[in-house]
């Protein structure tokens, strides 16, 4: 790819990224109520996305061979406990990741 093609590609990507950021403000201007379907999707999609992430993360976990999914279960339980205790998604994910990495690297 030539230098000119790289700059053109960069400009197109930057322009499309800006368009996707600004389009919501054009479709839903300030002061107007979004449609009920959008409000509904905003309330159910985060939970659905978390379920999808859980299934994706645990789909290849070996439960019949060592370590019998013990690190995954401990990390998942720690995420649930921290989230119900602190109600902080980032903290829950961070603590769960640290616990999982510690278990995989040090114990199992």
UniProtKB/TrEMBL annotation:
What's the protein called, per UniProt?
AzlD domain-containing protein
Keyword field contains Zinc: no
Q: List the Pfam families hit by this protein, alphabetically.
A: AzlD
Keywords, in A-Z order? Membrane, Transmembrane, Transmembrane helix
- Organism of this sequence: Ruoffia halotolerans
Q: State which residue ranges cross the membrane.
A: 6-30, 37-58, 64-82, 89-107
Q: Does the keyword Transmembrane helix apply?
A: yes
Which InterPro entries did the record assign?
Brnchd-chn_aa_trnsp_AzlD (IPR008407)
